[in-house]
Every structure is written in C-alpha cells, then in structure tokens.
Write a sequence for this structure.
C-alpha cells in the first residue's frame, strides 16, 4: 500500500540518525508512563534534515521527543526551525473530535460496564488492565515512575485492593 516508502524503526541512536536524515516526515511517538518523554532527536539532527521535511511530535503532552519541540495549538499548529516544519499540537485527537470520541467510547465502554457490574475493587481484581490504570488510592501513588518523579513512596496497586 505504501510502496515501501513507510518505515517503522526501533529508536537506537544509529537508527534515529540514519532515518531522520533521510526522512521527509518523522513522527515521534514516545511514552514513558508518568515521566517526561526523552529527547530522541537533537537540534543538530533537525538542522541537518532535508529542507521542507516535517516532524510531528505526538509526545508533546509529555514535553516532546524532539529538542526543537514546543507545544502549539489547533489554531496555530506549525512553526519552522532550520527549514523543518514542526507540528506539536497537544491533544491531536481534538482536531477530529467526533471521530476520536467514538474511538474513545468504543475502547472504554467494556471497562465502564465491568466497573458498573462488579464495583471498582472487584473489577480491578479481575482485570489486570484496569489494575494497571490505578494511579492513586487512599493517598498512595501506585505508579512507580510517577512516585519516583515526585519523590513519593510507591505502593504496589494489588496490595491496596486485596
């Protein structure tokens, strides 16, 4: 479908440099739960990209994964640094609100039904995905990265519901 023009690569230092410099479009989509996104693409690499290339920073909600990223809005979505177009809109799904709402509803409805039918504690006991979504309970942080980022004690979520 894409005539081999689309490449998804692991983010090793060498791969990032090789493919960023060849690319017309780089989409940075990094998520480290509870922490800022690492800056995987340096300002130097951006400056060496092809003129007219573009970067899309999906990780901008967590600080961005390009050194040259700063948050933009749907009203003023792009800016240019070193002839590279940057698109760093926080909440990108907001641009297609109706479609993203349907997608979110479809993804979350089974969890909502489980919570309603079983109650929150039993639903978390029975469903590892719901348990992994627990962030704080009784004032205790249950996500290790968040606890570390805020210098707070971490408590295993399972220990708080059993």
């Amino acid at each position: 479908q894409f005539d081999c023009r689309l490449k998804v690569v692991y983010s090793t230092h060498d791969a990032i440099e090789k493919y960023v410099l060849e690319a017309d479009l780089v989409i940075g989509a990094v998520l480290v739960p509870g922490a800022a996104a690492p800056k995987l693409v340096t300002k130097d690499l951006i400056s060496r990209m092809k003129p007219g290339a573009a970067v899309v920073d999906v990780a901008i909600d967590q600080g961005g994964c390009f050194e040259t990223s700063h948050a933009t809005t749907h009203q003023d979505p792009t800016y240019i640094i070193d002839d590279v177009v940057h698109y760093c809109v926080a909440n990108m799904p907001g641009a297609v609100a109706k479609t993203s709402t349907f997608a979110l509803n479809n993804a979350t409805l089974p969890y909502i039904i489980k919570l309603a039918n079983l109650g929150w504690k039993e639903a978390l006991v029975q469903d590892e995905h719901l348990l992994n979504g627990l962030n704080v309970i009784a004032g205790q942080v249950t996500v290790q990265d968040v606890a570390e980022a805020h210098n707070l004690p971490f408590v295993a979520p399972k220990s708080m519901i059993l």
In short: The longest helix spans residues 97-118. The chain has a mean pLDDT of 93. The CA atoms of residues 6 and 78 lie 23 Å apart.
